[in-house]
Structure formats: C-alpha cells, structure tokens
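U., I forgot to send this yesterday:
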Amino acid sequence: MSWWLLRFSRGGSARYLSHLDTARALQRTFTRAGVPIALSQGMRPKPRISLPLPLPVGAAGVEELAVLEVPDEVGGSIAVVRALRSAAPPGISPLSLLVAGAARPRPQPLEAIYECELDGDAGAIRDAVERYVSATSVEYERVSPKGRRRLDLKEYIGSVASVDTEAAVRLRFGVRHRHDGAARPQELIDLIAAWAGVEPVMRGLTRRSITWKGLPAGWEPAGGRSGST
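Result:
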C-alpha cells in the first residue's frame, strides 16, 4: 500500500458540506475515477481517507489537504489527477497529487490564513482592527457546552489586516494552531464587530492557505504545484 496526499479546493455550493460529507465527496470522486482507496481492518472496513484540518461549514478552501491510502499498483500521475478532476462534483476541485510512500504522513497545521468580508461602518471596522493589532493581549471569553474559558486571543490569532472594498471591509487574518487548540474565525469577527459596533456577520469566509509540519521531504507533485511549506 502507498499513502497519497491530495490537494483540493472547496467552493460554490460545496462550501456548505460538513467535514464528513466533504470526505465522502472525495471518496466518491475516487470511486468514479476508478481509483481504489484501501480499506481499514475489522468488522466494518472503512476507506482510509482523512482530512487533517476540518474546514468550517460555509467556508471555501483554496488549498485543502486529504491523506489517503491506495494499493501499490495504482500509480500517482497527472493522468490520475485529470481523472479525479473529471469525476469531482461541483465545488470540489482536485489540484495536485503527492505520493508519500509506504509510511503514513501525519501532517499537523501550524497556521491557517483566512479572508472574509464584514459589513458596516468601514472606518469603525478599521479602527477596531488597528486596536487589535496594537494590543499586547486581548482577553476573550469562550462559551461552549463544556463551560466558559478565558483566553488571550492574541496567542491564537496573530496578523489581522483590513482592506476596503466597494460593499464591505475585507479582513485577512492568521489562525495559529497550538498544542492546546486554535481560535475560531467567528471569535475574531465577534470581537471586531463588538468593538466597531456592527453586526458580527461575515460573508465569503475563505481559507486561503495552511502552513503544515510533518509533510514528507522530497515529495513530488503530479498535476500541479504543491504549494507546501
């Protein structure tokens, strides 16, 4: 068996797929393309495919990553990538294929870059962003079914920038993935919106890139650039 790394994008109506449904859509894409995915052992075998970093429902992803295992006789090539592109459903676009070999790769995210648009007073939003950037720490209370937790949002979200557009303000920010977890994009939006006095409703959330660690060295992509870090 061999492990593959597949870069793909998710957009259009597919942005509303759940994490599990996105994995299923990729699995069906491989089936339609005639590329078998290895199955796990046990009473209920499952395709050995995983997405290391879930993409929020409603968000698009420019360079997402899937890890999967295939039989050795299936060679990764540009032809396979083309077959996957032809078999993919609307909104799912295979970009490149990277053959990792016999050892299972275990990529871990370090940082993800997001963009979204926030409606409201552009000047107030810019001021709120500048307030965040200039602050040394920003205390934030996270409320979840597990209870309440206070954290310094600056430890989880570093760079934040704003750009005016014709209809809204576009925000670009980096979410750090630490050993104790990561911030949610909505948490930053809630904070900026509260400081700016606007509704905390973001539009067009897109994950532009992900910085990974734990990817195999010397890998060669088929079907496009790797875009790896």
